[in-house]
């Protein structure tokens, strides 16, 4: 669903990256801004707010890097070893497991 409001565009909020970004694939569009006459989308991981990125609107909707909605992926594809490596480096302590309650709205596996 796309609808122009002033200079920003209303688009779907839920997206799946075609490749892991810091080990994660499911993201939410949380904000749009105008930068140098270009719409910039702020995307945040569903599972870890520390994993966020800015991409252009055109890259989001016109590239093979993103798919609308959250794809139903096996846990090993939605939370990869890259995430554990990212957190290990970031925290310098490492993590042993990732816990998500079965009834959590963020349990996408």
In spatial order, strands of the major sheet run 6-5-4-3-7
Q: Please give the radius of gyration in angstroms.
A: 15 Å
The low-confidence parts are 1-6
Taking the alpha carbons of the first and last residues, their distance comes to 26 Å
Explain this structure to me?
The structure is a single chain. The chain is an alpha+beta fold and 109 residues long. The chain has one domain (3-91). The protein is 19% helix and 39% strand. The chain is built from three helices and seven strands. The chain has helices at residues 57-62, 75-78, 81-91, and strands spanning 3-5, 8-10, 14-21, 24-35, 38-45, 52-56, 66-68. It has a five-stranded antiparallel β-sheet. A two-stranded antiparallel sheet has the order 1-2. Strand 4 (24-35) and strand 5 (38-45) form a beta hairpin. Mean pLDDT is 83; it is low at 1-6.
SSE topology sketch:
Elements: E1 3-5, E2 8-10, E3 14-21, E4 24-35, E5 38-45, E6 52-56, H1 57-62, E7 66-68, H2 75-78, H3 81-91
Antiparallel strand pairs: 1-2, 3-4, 3-7, 4-5, 5-6
